[in-house]
Amino acid sequence: MVRKFPEPDVFQANCPTQRVLETIADKWSVIVIYALSQQETRRYSELQRVIGGISQKMLTQTLRKLERDGLVDRKVYPVVPPKVEYSLTPVGHTLTELLKAICQWTQIHWDEIEAARVRYDQGSDP
């Protein structure tokens, strides 16, 4: 089989894997994927309700980016008013355990991180 793309090397600036990491390491991408992993499909308004602090614009941009990368599927139903559902694709599902672990890690260690920030900020002031 002839390889279409060069061998991936995440340390190379022109490697497409860096663009993929840029998408999946984004805060909102992580949270949207995690939210979609909790339930098979969700409507836009449901995602907006579940994800505190995300603006309509940011949710739209994040969903489009994840759809473009093949991680989220968007299904439009021909009804009035329009009904749109989002779900993870098979590739998107492969991220759920990793991102769930990261989200759980942040919930366990947030207080240690906050304490370190306070210590750092206090030591940085003149």
Could you write a compact summary of the structure shown?
This protein has 126 residues and is mainly alpha-helical.
Write structural notes for this entry.
With 126 residues, the protein is mainly α. It has one domain (16-124): Winged helix-like DNA-binding domain superfamily/Winged helix DNA-binding domain (Arc Repressor Mutant, subunit A, Orthogonal Bundle). The chain is 59% helix and 12% strand. The chain contains six helices and three strands; from the N terminus they run ααβααββαα. It has helices spanning 16-24, 27-38, 44-50, 56-68, 90-93, 96-124; strands spanning 41-43, 72-77, 83-88. The protein has a three-stranded antiparallel beta sheet. β2 (72-77) and β3 (83-88) form a beta hairpin. The longest helix has 29 residues, at 96-124. 10% of the residues are buried.
